[in-house]
Amino acid sequence: MVRFSISxxxxxACGSGNAPAPTKDQxxxxxxxxxxxxxxxxxxVRELPVKQAIPTARQSTEDFRKFLKAEIARDLPEAKSxxxxxxxxxLGLLAKxxxxxxxxxxxxxxxxxxxxxxxxxxxxxxxxxxSDQILDVMSAHExxxxxxxxxxxxxxxxxxxxxxDDDAQFA
Length: 171
Description:
The protein is mainly α. It contains 7 helices and 3 strands.
């Protein structure tokens, strides 16, 4: 009986054997197709109306890196980066001076799986996790930003003349 149970578990773990596992491209396309069903449910939970469907796309890591470089150049110019690095060093948050712009870029490229860009009003998937559930949760999180943008125009808070100071913006 134990051998039979182990055999069934092994067979279940292997799947049907006939159907190949979907590729990451197929999985992300399926996930992006599910966005149409996620948006209205998310709008109800967040109590934010869907004014229009949020466009979606897959973005390569290299295109994401180009996007980040432009964003970082705008938000963290070299002089500001150097001053922040010096302040962090003085406070003991850094052991030595660092190029914060490069560190930020490397961190985001290696860890950000998706994002919503309020400037182009679009949701992008960059990395594809192994779990479809995680992919859908990730989509819901970024789509929340899309709904917030439709309700509150997030670009207002991204402009150089943002109405918030640094403390309020980071809160």
